[in-house]
Amino acid sequence: MSSKRPHLLRLAVLASGRGSNLQAIIDAIEAKQVDATVVAVISNKKDAVALERARKHSLKDIFVDPKPFAGQPDGREAYDRAILDMLQQHDVELVLLAGYMKIVTTVLVNAYAGRMMNIHPSLLPSFPGLDAQKKAIEWGCKLGGCTVHFVTEGVDEGPIIIQAAVPIFDGDTPENLSARILEQEHKIYPRAVQLYAEGRLRVEGRRVRVTGATTESIAAIISP
Ligand code: GAR
Q1: How far is the centre of ligand 1, averaged over its atoms, from the C-alpha of 3 (Å)?
Q2: Is residue 59 over pLDDT 50?
Q3: Which one, of 186, 150, 211, lies nearest residue 31 by Cα?
């Protein structure tokens, strides 16, 4: 190994479903666009396609069954303590929520403050929570998009790292808008991780300063 090889940021990806964002991260790492390594893919769903993707790339796949925690008084926190244990065992430096359909508690949020990201399919702070694309259409928005943000206690509320906007056309359905947004998700999530890996993100209150960003060349995105 060359001594010039950058430190590979140790990532864990938490995912509940199809894992296309996980795949985008894996692909970007394999293409050497992101100086990171996925040390664990963790899911609350045994059959998550994300876990299959992990196995296909010989990555550690971990299913943490939520059932045994469900009856406990602090079940959600206990579940997150089990996840935290996994993260610590694998020396995880940055946690990525990628279609992780479980609200994380303060157990994880505090342990990974400033070191946990989420991707959401809207231009936050519009349309947090579920069905963001459907809500954007119903609202009559002309632009939609996606956001990568740091995770804080409030759902989809943390400081925004990067966003991509896409047009919303008359006659769009939640499905085709989701597909249009997803294409951009696959670009911005790896990019956010690389910015972090390069130490270019600095959180100042609600604002994330990105050193060396060249957004000045973007005049406007107008739709229609
Ligand atoms: C993505 O569109 C992601 O933005 C969304 O779930 C999808 C997961 O797709 N996340 C949320 O809605 C979280 N609030 P993927 O499993 O193919 O990456």
Answers
A1: 37
A2: yes
A3: 186
Q: Which residues are designated catalytic?
A: 120
Is the pLDDT score of 216 beyond 80? no
- Domains annotated for the chain, with CATH where assigned, are 9-210 (3.40.50.170)
Instruction: Give, in order, the Cα–Cα distances in Å from 88 to each of 32, 44, 46, 104.
Output: 26, 18, 21, 16
Question: Which of ligand 1's atoms lies nearest the C-alpha of 101?
Answer: 13
Q: What ligand 1 atom has the least distance to the C-alpha of 16?
A: 16
Q: Which distant-in-sequence residues (6+ apart) come within 8 Å of 96 by Cβ?
A: 11, 12, 13, 14, 21, 22, 25, 116, 117, 118, 119, 189, 193
Per-residue pLDDT at 1 exceeds 60: no
Q: What is the pLDDT of residue 5?
A: 63
Atom of ligand 1 nearest to the CA of 129: 14
Of 46, 11, 28, the C-alpha closest to 185 is 28
Ligand 1 residue neighbourhood (C-beta within 6 Å): 15, 17-21, 98-99, 119-121, 182, 185
Which residue has the CA at smallest separation from atom 10 of ligand 1?
99
User: Is the model more confident about 6 or about 37?
Assistant: 37
